[in-house]
Write a structure and sequence with these properties.
The chain is an alpha/beta fold. The chain contains 27 helices and 24 strands. Strands 3-2-4-5-6 form a five-stranded parallel β-sheet, sandwiched between helices. The chain has a five-stranded mixed β-sheet with strand order 7-8-9-11-10, with helices on both faces. Helix 20 links the parallel strand 13 and strand 14. Helix 13 crosses helix 14. The chain is globular and about 90 Å long.
C-alpha cells in the first residue's frame, strides 16, 4: 500500500486564531491545517462550516418550476381526497426517504387510508418502478405516486402508470434521462449547477425538501414540526456516502444533533424508539457520524440484503410503539448478523480466486461464481477494491428471467429471478439428501407475470466498486453493448450481462482502463493528513478534529501518521455478535507507545490478528475516535508497517531467505552449515518460530520455500469428505488419518471437526490400530445439530486456508519482525 502525505501548508496566523476560537482547550493548529488544506480559507467559509447556525440553507423552491408543479399536484390530491402512494427503495437512503415522506406527507394525508408506501423486494425486483407494482396500485384506486431515491429513468413504467390513470412525481438524485420523463414533476438536484448548495443532496434530503415546500405552502395544516424529520435525513445522508457540502452538511449537522437528543431520552419517551433501540444494539449513542456509517446504516441495509423485503424498516423508523419497535430492531440486528456471516464467506471465496489472478497485468478485477449471494457482492467488491487499488466487479451467475423494459439508470443492485430460486431450491434439496449442509439462501416468491411472459436466459449479475481515480460508471457504460442492464455512479454500479459475454467484457474493460491510465500504476493508496505523536492523542485533539465533522465524501475523517511507535498488550478474538452468535471476524486490541510519552494509548484493529502487528518500531496510520460504549478515546488502526530504522529487521534480515512461490533449487546433501529449508506452508506463527529457533540453535539460515497453496472452497472439501465417507462405508475399506489429510488438504483439527459433523449426518468413525473405519448408522442422524457441526467444520477450514494464504504472501519484513517473539 502506498502512503501519501497530503501537501502541508502553514495557514496564516489570523486563520489559526479564528479556528482557536472554536477550540478553546487546544491550540487549534491541527484543525486549522486540515481546514486550510481542504479549501476553507476565509472567515465566512469557516463560520458556516463549523457552526450550522451561521449557514443559510437554500429554499426548496430553488428547484424551480418542478417543485411548484409537485406542490400543486399534492394540493390537488388533498383537495380531491385522492389516494397517494410513496414508492421508495430498499437501501438506507431509500428507506429513510420513504420514512420522511410517510411522516411528512402524513401531516397532509390520512396514513393507511389515503397514504401508503411500497418498497421493492431486493431479491425479486430491481431498483425503481415496475409494472406489476403499478398495476396493484391502480387496482386499489391510487391516483398519484411520489417516488423517493428512485424513478428518474423509469420512462416506460411512468408511461404505463399514466395509461392506468396514475400521475407520477419523481424525487431522486440518480442519473438523469436524456430527456425529461413524462411526469407531473421531477425534483432531482442533478438538474442544478454543480456548484449549487443543493446539488449533492441524497434521496432522503430531496424528499425532505419536498415536504419543506409543502409546509411552506400550507403552514397551518401540519401538527408536527418539520425539524422532527431531520434525524432521518441525517441517517440517509451519511449512509449514502454523498458529499457533505452545502445543504448536505447543514442538514446532517442538524440531524445528528436531533438524533443524539432523542437517544438521551428514556426509551419509553423517545420519539423514534426503533432508532434508539438500534443504537443500543450496536453500542452507539447517535452523536457521531460513524454511529450512522458503522452502526445504523449497515443494519438498515442488511435487511434487504438478507430478507429481500425491507418494508418493515419504515415502520421501525417511524412507529411510536416501543415494544413493537424493539422486536423490529432485533429482527434488523439478526439480519445484520447473517449479513456479516455471508459477507465473510464470500470474502474468503473471492480471496481464493484472487490468488489465480496476476494483478500486475490486471487493471479491473472481474470475478464470478454461481453460488455468491447477490446481496453482499457490493460490500465485498468495495473491500477488494480498497485492498488492491483496482476497480472490482463481482458477479453471480444464475438462470434469470428476462425482465422486460425496466429502466436501468438506477440499477445499483443485481436483479433476482424466480427460476433461479426454483433451481436453488432443487439444488438445496439434493444436497440435504446427500448429507451436504445447506448454503444459506434468501427467500422470494414467484412473480408469475415475469415467469410466464418471458423466456429464461443465463445472466451474470452483480455489483461493481471503484477507487477514487477511476470513474467506474463511465467505464462500465462504455461496454454497454455487452451488457443486459447497468446503472450507478462513478464509485458504484450494478450490472447484468449474458454469461457468455463475461470473457469479452473482462478483456475490453481492462484494455480500456489500461489505455486511459497510460503509464500510471494502480495500487492501493491511503492519504495521510497530519503527523502526530502518541502524546498528542486524547480528548483535546479529538475535540479539535471534531470541528470537521460530519465527515464523509469530499471531507474524509482525518488520517493521522504516527512514526517510530510500538505496540504492547495486543490480543485478538472472534467477535461475539447479537444473542451470542459468533461471527467470523477478528478484532485486535492493543496499546500504542512512542518516545513522546510514558503513557500508552488504547487502539483497535478490525479484521486483523495481533500477530500482524510489527515487533519493534513501526509507522502507522490511524483515526482518532471516541468509544461511547467503553467511555474512552482510542485510535482505529488503518495501516501499519515496520519503521525503516527497525533494529530487529536489520539484525535478522540476512538470516532468513525468501524462496516462497518459486521452484526450490536442487541442493547438495545437508551439511552442518547448510540452510534449514521449510517447504510446508505453516498455519500459525508458532510453527515458524519453532523452525526459527531450530535454525538459530544449529547456526543455520532459515529458507522459506513453501508455495502458494491451491485451495478448494471449504464447501467442496466438505462434499469430498461426505463422498469419501459414503465410499468407505459401502466398500468397508480402511483409511489412515494421513491419507484423509492428504486427500482433503486440511489439518488435524479440521479433520476432527469434519468427523464430528459426519456423525450427525449418520456416519460413525471407529479406530482400528492406525486405521479408521467409517460406517453408516442412521440412528446417529441429528438434523438439528448438522448445521452447527458443519458450520464449525467450514469455519475451521476457512480459518486454516486464510492462514495458509496469509503465510504465502505475508511480507518478509513482517516475518522477520515476528519470529523473535517468544512461543505461546
Amino acid at each position: 500500500m502506498q502512503w501519501i502525505l497530503a501537501p502541508t501548508e502553514q495557514p496564516p496566523d489570523w486563520f489559526i486564531a479564528a479556528v482557536k476560537q472554536h477550540t478553546p482547550t487546544s491550540s487549534g493548529l491541527y484543525a486549522a491545517q486540515l481546514l486550510w488544506q481542504r479549501g476553507i480559507q476565509d472567515s465566512q467559509q469557516l463560520a458556516t462550516f463549523v457552526n450550522y447556525q451561521n449557514y443559510q440553507p437554500a429554499n426548496p423552491f430553488e428547484f424551480g418550476e418542478e417543485m411548484h408543479l409537485a406542490v400543486t399536484r399534492l394540493q390537488q390530491a388533498r383537495k380531491l381526497g385522492e389516494k397517494v402512494a410513496i414508492w421508495g427503495d430498499f437501501d438506507a437512503d431509500g428507506i429513510t426517504s420513504t420514512a420522511v415522506l410517510w411522516d411528512g406527507l402524513g401531516q397532509f394525508f390520512q396514513q393507511h387510508t389515503h397514504l401508503t408506501y411500497y418498497i421493492p423486494n431486493r431479491l425479486r425486483e430491481s431498483h425503481g418502478l415496475n409494472n406489476s407494482g403499478i398495476e396493484n396500485l391502480a387496482k386499489q384506486n391510487f391516483k398519484l405516486i411520489v417516488t423517493c431515491d428512485t424513478g428518474s429513468t423509469n420512462i416506460d413504467e411512468i408511461i404505463y402508470a399514466k395509461q392506468l390513470g396514475i400521475d407520477v412525481i419523481v424525487t431522486d438524485h440518480h442519473t438523469l434521462p436524456a430527456q425529461r420523463p413524462p411526469v407531473t414533476a421531477i425534483i432531482n438536484p442533478r438538474y442544478l449547477p454543480s456548484e449549487h448548495p443543493l446539488f449533492h443532496l441524497s434521496g432522503v434530503a430531496v424528499a425532505y425538501k419536498l415536504v419543506e415546500a409543502l409546509y411552506q405552502t400550507l403552514p397551518n395544516i401540519p401538527q408536527d414540526a418539520l425539524e422532527n424529520l431531520l434525524d432521518l435525513v441525517a441517517v440517509g445522508l451519511i449512509a449514502d456516502l454523498v458529499q457533505l457540502k452545502g445543504d448536505c452538511r447543514y442538514l446532517a449537522q442538524l440531524g445528528i444533533q436531533r438524533l443524539q437528543a432523542d437517544f438521551k431520552q428514556p426509551p419509553t419517551a423517545r420519539r423514534r424508539p426503533g432508532v434508539g433501540r438500534l443504537l443500543e444494539l450496536c453500542q452507539k449513542s447517535g452523536d457521531r457520524p460513524t454511529d450512522i456509517s458503522f452502526g445504523l446504516g449497515p443494519r438498515i441495509n442488511a435487511v434487504s440484503r438478507i430478507q429481500g423485503d425491507a418494508s418493515f424498516c419504515v415502520e421501525l423508523l417511524t412507529s411510536r410503539d416501543a415494544k413493537h419497535c424493539n422486536q423490529l430492531a432485533e429482527e434488523t440486528e439478526l439480519a445484520n448478523t447473517r449479513r456479516k456471516s455471508l459477507q465473510k464467506d464470500v470474502q474468503t471465496q473471492v480471496a481464493q480466486k484472487l490468488t489465480q489472478l496476476d494483478l500486475s497485468t490486471t487493471s479491473v478485477i472481474v470475478l464470478e461464481d454461481p453460488q455468491w449471494p447477490a446481496g453482499v457482492l457490493g460490500l465485498v467488491a468495495g473491500q477488494v477494491a480498497q485492498e488492491t487499488g483496482r476497480p472490482t466487479i463481482l458477479l453471480s451467475t444464475e438462470l434469470a428471467g428476462e425482465q422486460g423494459s425496466r429502466g436501468a439508470g438506477e440499477e445499483l443492485a443485481p436483479l433476482s429471478s424466480n427460476s433461479a430460486l426454483s433451481t436453488q431450491h432443487s439444488a438445496l434439496s439434493e444436497k440435504l439428501r446427500a448429507g451436504v449442509p445447506p448454503v444459506e439462501q434468501s427467500s422470494g416468491t414467484q412473480n408469475s407475470a415475469l415467469s410466464t411472459q418471458h423466456s429464461a436466459l443465463v445472466l451474470a449479475r452483480g455489483s461493481a466498486r471503484s477507487i477514487n481515480s477511476v470513474d467506474l460508471y463511465q467505464l462500465v457504460k462504455d461496454q454497454a453493448h455487452l451488457l443486459h442492464r447497468f446503472g450507478g455512479h462513478p464509485y458504484a454500479a450494478g450490472l447484468s450481462l449474458p454469461v457468455e459475454n463475461i470473457p469479452l467484457f473482462t478483456q475490453a474493460i481492462n484494455q480500456q482502463l489500461r489505455q486511459s491510465l497510460g503509464s500510471t500504476e494502480l495500487m492501493p493508496t491511503v492519504q495521510v493528513d497530519l503527523k502526530v505523536t502518541v502524546a498528542d492523542l486524547g480528548k483535546e485533539l479529538f475535540l479539535e478534529l471534531k470541528l470537521l465533522e460530519p465527515c464523509g465524501m469530499g471531507n474524509p475523517a482525518p488520517k493521522l501518521l504516527i512514526q517510530n511507535c510500538w505496540f504492547e498488550n495486543a490480543w485478538h478474538r472472534n467477535q461475539q455478535d447479537w444473542q451470542g452468535k459468533k461471527v467470523q471476524y477478528i478484532k485486535t486490541d492493543f496499546n500504542i507507545r512512542d518516545d513522546s510519552t510514558k503513557n500508552p494509548f488504547p487502539g483497535v484493529w478490525w479484521g486483523h490478528y495481533k500477530d500482524e502487528l510489527p515487533v519493534g518500531k513501526a509507522d502507522c496510520i490511524v483515526e482518532l475516535d471516541y468509544n461511547s460504549f467503553k467511555k474512552r478515546y482510542e485510535i482505529r488502526l488503518i495501516a501499519v508497517r515496520p519503521s525503516n530504522d527497525s533494529e530487529l529487521s536489520q539484525q535478522y534480515s540476512t538470516q532468513i531467505l525468501d524462496w516462497r512461490n518459486r521452484p526450490t533449487p536442487n541442493s547438495p546433501l545437508p551439511t552442518p552449515n547448510s540452510p534449514l529449508i521449510l517447504e510446508q506452508c505453516p498455519t500459525s506463527w508458532d510453527q515458524i518460530r519453532i523452525w526459527w529457533q531450530r535454525s538459530l540453535y544449529n547456526h543455520q539460515q532459515l529458507v522459506l520455500a513453501w508455495s502458494k497453496p491451491h485451495l478448494q472452497p471449504p464447501q467442496e472439501i466438505w462434499q469430498t469428505l461426505v463422498g469419501i465417507a459414503k465410499y468407505l462405508s459401502r466398500t468397508q475399506q480402511l483409511v489412515t488419518r494421513t491419507q484423509l489429510l492428504g486427500k482433503l488438504g486440511i489439518c488435524d483439527r479440521s479433520l476432527l471437526l469434519g468427523i464430528k459433523a459426519l456423525k450427525h449426518c449418520g456416519f460413525i468413525a471407529t479406530r482400528q490400530d492406525r486405521y479408521l473405519q467409517i460406517s453408516q448408522n442412521p440412528q446417529t442422524i441429528s438434523p438439528h445439530l448438522v448445521d452447527t457441526a458443519v458450520t464449525q467444520f467450514l469455519s475451521a477450514v476457512s480459518e486454516e486456508q486464510f492462514q495458509q494464504q496469509y503465510f504465502s504472501e505475508v511480507p518478509l519484513s513482517t516475518i522477520v519482525a515476528l519470529v523473535n517473539r517468544p512461543l505461546n
